[in-house]
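Please decode residue identities from the backbone states below.
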């Protein structure tokens, strides 16, 4: 009987071992299945996140310049480009803006009884000023604007009035080296002294005579064809400074002044464009109301 019992024992042991091996294989299979399932889940999650990121909007701009060369800011304008831009604004004021301003807060020139000033059959506009002069500084803005309605400017320069005078360092332009072309008028401009009060340009004999006779050699002086004249400016340059009530306040920049001229309600428009309308109305008397679209405009008619 011993042999059968031994055989049974061996069979039982083999069965137990087989069962254990089967159980081990099942555990291994389950482990691999779990790993694969986990990897599949991770792949799905990664794909979902990547898709979400690709569809998300770009971050809003902060307005700050980026240090990346690909996002570098536009290069700043040169001083010549800024000057050209400001002159373009001043010389291309829309008629609607002039019309809204009318005579503004500027003064008219006085009529004169002297001989007519003409050149090549055209009325002559005589200006004698000085680069240091703060009142010349304001008057130039208006004169440039007015004459741009009859012709074109070239080579106008940037200038500031004296830093040690009232309305110090007023932003303006200079007629030194500038040229003006028109089929209606001739402009004869002289900057007699520079910003340091040194001699600069000499007025022609004709201009010098009317300047000393009618203007007592003061700055600025204007004569429109021998029919209108003014010794002094049409307005004090209060709006060309930060504090209009303080003649020693900081000056406004050329950009500030030029940009303000796009608003007919601004103090700068009322002074500069108002003065320009008055000059235009008086010049139209000399040009037989030409050009008609300018001389018959509402702003010019209101300034007569």
């Amino acid at each position: 009987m011993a042999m059968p019992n031994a055989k049974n024992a061996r069979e039982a042991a083999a069965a137990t071992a087989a069962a254990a091996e089967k159980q081990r294989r099942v555990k291994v299979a389950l482990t691999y299945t779990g790993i694969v399932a986990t990897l599949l889940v991770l792949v799905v999650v990664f794909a979902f996140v990547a898709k979400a990121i690709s569809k998300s909007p770009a971050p809003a701009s902060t307005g700050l310049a980026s240090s990346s060369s690909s996002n570098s800011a536009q290069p700043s304008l040169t001083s010549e480009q800024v000057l050209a831009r400001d002159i373009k604004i001043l010389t291309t004021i829309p008629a609607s803006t002039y019309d809204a301003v009318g005579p503004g807060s500027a003064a008219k020139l006085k009529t004169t009884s002297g001989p007519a000033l003409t050149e090549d059959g055209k009325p002559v506009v005589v200006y004698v000023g000085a680069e240091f002069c703060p009142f010349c500084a304001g008057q130039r803005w208006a004169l440039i604007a007015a004459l741009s309605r009859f012709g074109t400017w070239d080579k106008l320069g940037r200038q500031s009035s004296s830093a040690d005078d009232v309305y110090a360092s007023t932003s303006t332009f200079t007629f030194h080296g500038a040229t003006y072309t028109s089929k209606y008028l001739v402009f004869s401009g002289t900057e007699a002294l520079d910003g340091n009060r040194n001699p600069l340009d000499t007025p022609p004999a004709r201009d010098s005579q009317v300047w000393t006779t009618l203007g007592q050699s003061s700055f600025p002086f204007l004569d429109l064809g021998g029919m209108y004249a003014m010794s002094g400016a049409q307005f004090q340059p209060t709006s060309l400074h930060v504090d209009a009530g303080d003649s020693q306040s900081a000056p406004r920049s050329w950009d500030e002044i030029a940009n303000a001229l796009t608003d007919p309600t601004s103090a700068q428009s009322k002074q500069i464009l108002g003065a320009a309308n008055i000059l235009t109305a008086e010049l139209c008397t000399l040009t037989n109301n030409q050009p008609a679209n300018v001389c018959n405009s509402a702003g010019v008619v209101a300034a007569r």
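Observation: The beta strands are 110-111, 118-119, 122-130, 151-154, 157-160, 171-174, 179-182, 186-193, 221-224, 228-231.
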